[in-house]
Amino acid sequence: MSYFRITLLRSAIGLPRRSTDVLKALGLKKRMGTVFHPVSQSVAGQIMKVKELVEVREVDRSMTQQEVWLERKPDPGYYVEKTCAQERGEMGRQ
């Protein structure tokens, strides 16, 4: 079964109530929020109402909130080889 992965990219501030209500029906509350819905005609129609505000991808499986967060988490840019406690432990043994 495939799913729509829907991410809200633009804010709904200042838009007509109809657009805001469609976003609420889809479960989108904040910018960069992501929800998963099974592929269906009704969901596709809702997406078309707010297509300028969202990014849609078709995926094979729904992801948990934790999986989405880990996917978005940036690489720290460095790697810890040894902690300070490990350094002290090696020096004490010598």
UniProtKB/TrEMBL annotation:
Origin: domain of life: Eukaryota
GO-annotated biological processes: translation
A Pfam family hit: Ribosomal_L30
Keyword Hydrolase attributed: no
Any one annotated GO CC term: large ribosomal subunit
Subcellular locations according to the entry: Mitochondrion
CDD domains, alphabetized: Ribosomal_L30
Keywords: Mitochondrion, Ribonucleoprotein, Ribosomal protein
GO molecular function, one term: structural constituent of ribosome
Presence of the UniProt keyword Ribosomal protein in the record: yes
Transmembrane segments: none
Positions of the Large ribosomal subunit protein uL30-like ferredoxin-like fold domain: 4-54
Reported function: Component of the mitochondrial ribosome (mitoribosome), a dedicated translation machinery responsible for the synthesis of mitochondrial genome-encoded proteins, including at least some of the essential transmembrane subunits of the mitochondrial respiratory chain. The mitoribosomes are attached to the mitochondrial inner membrane and translation products are cotranslationally integrated into the membrane.
PANTHER family: LARGE RIBOSOMAL SUBUNIT PROTEIN UL30M, MITOCHONDRIAL RIBOSOMAL PROTEIN L30
Family, as annotated: Belongs to the universal ribosomal protein uL30 family.
Protein name: Large ribosomal subunit protein uL30m
